[in-house]
Amino acid sequence: MSQTPRIPTTFTCTLLVLALGAGMTACSGGSDGHPLAGKPFDAAQQVSFNAPMGNARAPLDKPLEVTRKGDGRITDVTAVDEAGHYLAGELAADGSRWRSTGPLAADARYTVKVATEDDRGAPGARTLTFQTAPAKQLLQVEFGPEEGKYGVGQPITAALSAPVKTPEARAAVERSLTVRSTPRVTGAWHWVDDEKLHWRPKDFWPVGAQVSVSGNLGGIRIADGLYGAPTGEELRLTIGDRVEAITDAASHQMTVKRNGEVINTIPVTTGKPGFSTRNGIKVVLGKEYFVRMRSTTVGIAAGSSESYDLPVYYATRVTWSGEYVHAAPWSVGSQGYANVSHGCTGMSTGNAAWFFKTFNEGDLVTVINSSGREMDHFGNGFGDWNLSWDQWRGGSAVLAGTRDGATAADQARLRPAF
User: Fold this and answer.
1) pLDDT tens across 206-240, in order?
2) Would you call 344 a catalytic residue per the annotation?
3) Annotated catalytic residue: which of 85, 252, 344, 377?
4) Structural domain boundaries enclosing 305
5) Annotated catalytic residue: which of 85, 326, 342, 377?
6) Is 308:342 a contact under the CB 8 Å cutoff?
7) How many domains does the chain divide into?
8) pLDDT in tens, 166-182
9) What is the reported pTM?
């Protein structure tokens, strides 16, 4: 009868133990004397800085320099201020010197971390802190509108305290202003002039969106002698329903929608020849229960055949020059049939009261088929939506010319905030 061969278990385990032991001995023995095995040494004697020590402030017009002393080399330098702004710099190929290439932030405390290695490859480390001088001129930014709830057409505004003209300076400002939305949207800043920017999404805001606006300008160099001032608290907005009125000046009818559903149709009158209502998309700017409308305020001489002086109720403003949607009881016979106003959209008192209650700041009022000129893009209210998306992003110092209106890095900044 044959027997099953006996497995030499003892011998096999011995080999395994020996193998593990040999491996462990080789690993531990090889690391004891390696120059990278120890904790980095203090490189105080290996590098020098040109930043002042103590309470002295570093000048803003001179670069920061870190220089090697003796043998070894500098392997890395990071310099960041308390606001999280990193200072760009360049390290020499031989590791002898690091020099900042970006501007220092004003009135900022920097932490500089330097990594080195000696001639044997052992790592060293050195940390330095210093304070920069304050700026002589500060750029303030004020965001708008006020915190609150707005319609889907409400742009965000940023008013600057000093003109910013060059593309480089404008880009520095833009990169320091952040808009976040939940749900996420694609959007861009647009320079209205040297001292004002508007921000809007590619399309209207999503219903119910939560929006925050913040700045991180503090200390950033904008131009020679001009630095960003610290910004205040975040601006937070809530977006309501999509409420919009579409007025057809040719048919003398206004259609009102909420979230795409028609909720009312109103007979109206718009501007007569010579005073035709502006075409285009407008955004509600505010509401006034009573307004005294005088023709002299729009350049019509008192006593002329076109002059007027009227008490007006339930007036919803859509331009700063005085275009309203309002009650016009004197023209009820023409409403739905003819255009007889001086540019405003008139309706019965009952319909105007309903419109006044239904519409709020940021809601949309669009006029079509009028013989009037197009709504101004800027300066007479919010005509921002009358620019195509390509035209809009073309007004950005950062996003103009990009394929989708934003680089990957800039799109990442439009992340949800809540």
Assistant:
1) 999 999 999 989 889 998 889 999 888 899 999 99
2) yes
3) 344
4) 243-385
5) 326
6) yes
7) 3
8) 999 999 999 999 999 99
9) 0.78
